[in-house]
DNA sequence: CACTCCCGCCAATTA
DNA sequence: TAATTGGCGGGAGTG
């Protein structure tokens, strides 16, 4: 009885939600307002008289029941009509009291009727799947919430997921615009590509998925003992991520990626949760896991409403587990770029703002340990900037998305290939995969995919699009593959490994890659034992993942980058396939690297405004892709198919000769121009002699940072690798030129021969790939970055390279330098060989890895309290960016 | 009891 | 400062 009375009263006292709703609602009387009901509290409170009490009462009055009823009505009736009901509803309320109650009870919507999935369907029903391009449908959150009879909070849940798929985009406060599914396939494609980068390995084989769990935890632990670097204060501290990193939006994209990458197209919730959890440290929280699962359900409900997935159950040893099966499109035809309008919307690159973060790592001599040089600052800006910054008032968020997309695209392009694999390395593979996943943050452009032993890899050149320049410009670059200790350090431990190069190498293997355009280098496990050192691998993986994430995440860029190295564990692959070994042999030589020239050429590279920052780039890319591709030019190129061969050819064409003798600089950035330039660089000189630097063009966003600089700078991600370290890598090749280039024997590259490398065979054999992700962050400009994007798509096909392990070497260049030049700076540290490991790796690992937890259920158990909400570990990782202050 | 996941508190962001 | 967003996790509904 009281309740009723109260209900009546309710109108009088304003409840927080009510006012708004009422006003908005169509003329409903306050009393009636169906909307925003407040929750009911059944039990009367002790102090009815307190203000609070009144509120509660009111709330209770508002009770859910009423809402439900309304909802039902609405649901059942055509949407259009829904509004009408209001009035009646009000009546109902009253009525309800008496007679209706029972009825309600019967019909009571029950939870299902209030489910997010159903709500989403109602929401979707309001808008056409394929709206005419001409019509712009704007969505008012308040309106929708009121019409659907739910609180606004729920609408956010829906919209955020839809936004992640580009079905809607935020235009302004309380305003979203409806795009429909026109771009869905493109978005999915991007996600798929990005997903491959990040998670490809993982999902490669499903069985592994299962394994993953175990491995995840265990392996990591094992592998990484050292790696804990993650925890490094720097990293952690740096991150204060905004919550956005954890956002539903991002989770949604990642979740979708998992499906797209999965062969079976079935993803179990727990696995997804584990993968998506980022963890900072070893400890995993059970609570965190639960929370993740909750979110996944939220996302899954929306995706289900979109008919993209459906619920299924998979039975495993442990029993049946909830899972979801992808029932959406699997193949994404190239789409039409045209379709999307190019809308050059005004957003010139929002990304620019975002600084990229870079990190450096130096490799130390003997071991590959990475330390970070750079300080990482969080790139908060990125996110923060995201909304605020976005220059375009119109749609800040979109930008974000775009960014993501772009990144994704880039990444995808870069690394596209998949590797099938798997023969042998189960454990390793999985780990790697896992690691990689975890590491997503990586800045480095390259994404690595771990390849199991056999796989072949091809190196794929970057997609032309991406690095358009390359074709033209790049004459060649060479990469030296073999690394062995050669020169400088024979003795060093590294050397030892390398010494043979072969043997050791073999195991670890590495990879290489080189896209024609830029350079890439990567390496697999450095250490002699691969096993022992996780570093490389992890790093690689991490990088990849990082990038991917970056791509995914909007803000991302900066943040993530920081973590490049993974220290840990990633175990490199243990075994390498024979093939690898072969390759390894080659490796003896030190790498030389290729590098695009920096300065001179730089213009290209850096240049493009867009290119500058990786982050920016990504973003841009996204836009382009999604929104509009702006970069037509590239697109053309992009179309090109790039095969290694082709690339090679191209490169050849350009000029093999060009390579400067000096090893290092060969610049090739070419391609990048619009893109991010990617480079590889090695410096033999001076103190560094032993070290090589590598830069990837694309660094992960994180890697670069540039924040402030006005410099067009880019951040180049670089990695310094001790020569020794390199040794382990088998080779690097740039696909393109195989033949033309110097005639080097496959493998051999001596350090000396900077110029050329031949890698002919290598490439194929090599297990690893590297992709570059270029990153540049340009904060700057707005520019034109766009181009890259389009190409990217095509690129995707092409590119890809992956490697798995590489990371060891990588470093981030902490600084952003606009040009390669900067790299030099990095060198300084050189004297000591550094290994990256410590530095970021941790993050990487952390990143996907679910804490061992997966492995250990036990561990999960409560830790809740710990974290602060603020920073999610993941974010932290991401964030880490180096700031290069200077 | 396990699985789902609604609900809404309240912090982070924005306006 | 107020409003908007949205992370988060308690705990309720379902089976």
From TrEMBL:
One of its GO terms (molecular function) is DNA-binding transcription factor activity, RNA polymerase II-specific. Its main location: nucleus. It comes from the Eukaryota. Residues 1-47, 62-93, 335-406, 561-614, 630-671, 847-886 are annotated as: Disordered. It holds the Pfam family WHD_E2F_TDP. Residues 598-612 have a biased composition (Low complexity). The keyword Chloroplast does not apply. Residues 81-90, 355-380, 865-886 have a biased composition (Polar residues). One of its GO terms (biological process) is positive regulation of nucleobase-containing compound metabolic process. Residues 111-180, 243-328 form the E2F/DP family winged-helix DNA-binding domain. SMART domains: E2F_TDP. Residues 65-77, 397-406, 577-588, 646-668 have a biased composition (Basic and acidic residues). Belongs to the E2F/DP family. PANTHER family: TRANSCRIPTION FACTOR E2F (PTHR12081), TRANSCRIPTION FACTOR E2F7 (PTHR12081:SF25). This is Transcription factor E2F7. The gene is E2f7.
């Amino acid at each position: 009885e009281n309740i009723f009375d109260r209900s009546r009263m309710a109108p009088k006292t304003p409840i927080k939600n009510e006012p708004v709703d009422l006003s908005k609602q169509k003329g409903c009387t306050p009393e009636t307002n169906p909307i925003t009901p407040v929750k009911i509290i059944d039990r009367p409170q002790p102090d009815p008289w307190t203000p609070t009490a009144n509120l509660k009462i009111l709330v209770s009055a508002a009770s859910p029941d009423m809402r439900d009823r309304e909802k039902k009505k609405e649901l059942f009736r055509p949407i259009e009509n829904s509004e009408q009901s209001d009035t009646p509803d009000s009546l109902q309320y009253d009525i309800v009291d008496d007679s209706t109650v029972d009825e309600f009870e019967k019909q009571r919507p029950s939870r299902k009727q209030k489910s997010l999935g159903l709500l989403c369907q109602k929401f979707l029903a309001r808008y056409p799947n394929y709206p005419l391009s001409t019509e712009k449908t704007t969505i008012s959150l308040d309106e929708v919430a009121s019409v659907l009879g739910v609180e606004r909070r729920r609408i956010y849940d829906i919209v955020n997921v839809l936004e992640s798929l580009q079905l809607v985009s935020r235009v302004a406060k309380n305003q979203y615009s409806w795009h429909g599914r026109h771009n869905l396939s493109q978005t999915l494609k991007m996600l798929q590509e990005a997903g491959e980068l990040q998670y490809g390995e993982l999902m490669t084989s499903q069985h592994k998925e299962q394994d993953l769990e175990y491995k995840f935890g265990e392996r990591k632990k094992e592998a990484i003992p050292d790696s804990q670097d993650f925890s490094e204060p720097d990293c952690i501290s740096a991150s204060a991520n905004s919550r956005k990193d954890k956002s539903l939006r991002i989770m949604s994209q990642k979740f979708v990626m998992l499906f797209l990458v999965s062969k079976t197209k079935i993803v179990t919730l727990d696995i997804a949760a584990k993968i998506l959890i980022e963890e900072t440290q070893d400890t995993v929280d059970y609570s965190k896991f639960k929370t993740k699962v909750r979110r996944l359900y939220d996302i899954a409900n929306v995706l289900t409403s979109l008919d993209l997935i459906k619920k299924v159950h998979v039975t495993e040893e442990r029993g049946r587990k909830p899972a979801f099966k992808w029932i959406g499109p699997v193949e994404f035809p190239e789409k039409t770029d045209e379709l999307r309008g190019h809308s050059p919307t005004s957003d010139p690159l929002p990304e620019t703002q975002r600084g990229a973060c870079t990190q450096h790592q130096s490799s130390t001599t003997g071991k590959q340990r990475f330390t970070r040089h750079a300080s990482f600052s969080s790139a908060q800006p990125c996110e923060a900037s995201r909304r605020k910054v976005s220059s375009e008032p119109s749609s800040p968020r979109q930008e974000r998305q775009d960014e993501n997309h772009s990144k994704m695209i880039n990444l995808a392009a870069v690394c596209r290939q998949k590797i099938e694999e798997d023969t042998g390395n189960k454990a390793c593979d999985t780990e790697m995969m896992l690691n990689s996943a975890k590491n997503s943050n990586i800045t480095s452009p390259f994404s690595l995919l771990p390849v199991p032993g056999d796989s072949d890899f091809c190196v794929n050149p970057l997609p032309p699009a991406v690095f358009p320049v390359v074709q033209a410009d790049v004459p060649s670059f060479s990469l030296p593959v073999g690394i062995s200790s050669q020169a400088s350090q024979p003795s060093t431990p590294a050397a030892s490994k390398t010494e043979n190069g072969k043997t050791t190498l073999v195991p670890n293997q590495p990879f290489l890659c080189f896209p024609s355009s830029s350079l890439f280098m990567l390496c697999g496990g450095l250490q002699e034992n691969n096993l022992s050192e996780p570093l490389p691998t992890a790093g690689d993986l991490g990088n990849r993942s990082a990038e991917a994430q970056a791509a995914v995440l909007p803000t991302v860029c900066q943040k993530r980058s920081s973590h490049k190295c993974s220290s840990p564990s990633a175990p490199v692959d243990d075994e390498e396939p024979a093939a690898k070994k072969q390759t390894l042999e080659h490796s003896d030589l030190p790498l030389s690297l290729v590098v695009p020239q920096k300065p001179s050429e730089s213009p290209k590279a850096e240049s493009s405004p867009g290119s500058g920052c990786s982050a920016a780039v990504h973003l841009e890319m996204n836009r382009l892709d999604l929104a509009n591709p702006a970069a037509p030019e590239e697109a053309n190129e992009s179309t090109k198919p790039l095969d290694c061969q082709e690339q090679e050819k191209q490169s050849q064409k350009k000029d093999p000769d060009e390579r400067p003798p000096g090893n290092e600089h060969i610049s090739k950035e070419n391609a990048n121009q619009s893109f991010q330039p990617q480079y590889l660089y090695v410096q033999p000189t001076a103190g560094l002699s032993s070290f090589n630097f590598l830069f990837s063009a694309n660094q992960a966003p994180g890697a670069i940072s540039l924040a402030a600089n006005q410099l067009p700078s880019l951040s180049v991600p670089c990695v310094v690798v001790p020569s020794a370290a390199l040794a382990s890598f088998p080779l690097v090749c740039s696909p393109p030129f195989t033949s033309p280039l110097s005639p080097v024997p496959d493998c051999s590259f001596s350090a000396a021969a900077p110029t050329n490398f031949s890698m002919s065979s290598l490439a194929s054999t090599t297990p690893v790939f590297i992709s570059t992700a270029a990153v540049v962050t340009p904060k700057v400009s707005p520019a034109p970055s766009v181009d890259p994007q389009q190409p990217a798509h095509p690129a995707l096909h092409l590119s890809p390279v992956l490697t798995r392990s590489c990371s060891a070497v990588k470093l981030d260049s902490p600084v952003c330098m606009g040009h390669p030049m900067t790299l030099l700076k990095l060198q300084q540290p050189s004297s000591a060989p550094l290994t990256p490991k410590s530095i970021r790796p941790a993050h990487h690992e952390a990143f996907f890895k679910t804490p061992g937890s997966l492995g250990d259920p036990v561990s999960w158990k409560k830790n809740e309290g710990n974290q602060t909400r603020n920073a999610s570990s993941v974010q932290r990782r991401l964030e880490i960016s180096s700031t290069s202050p200077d």
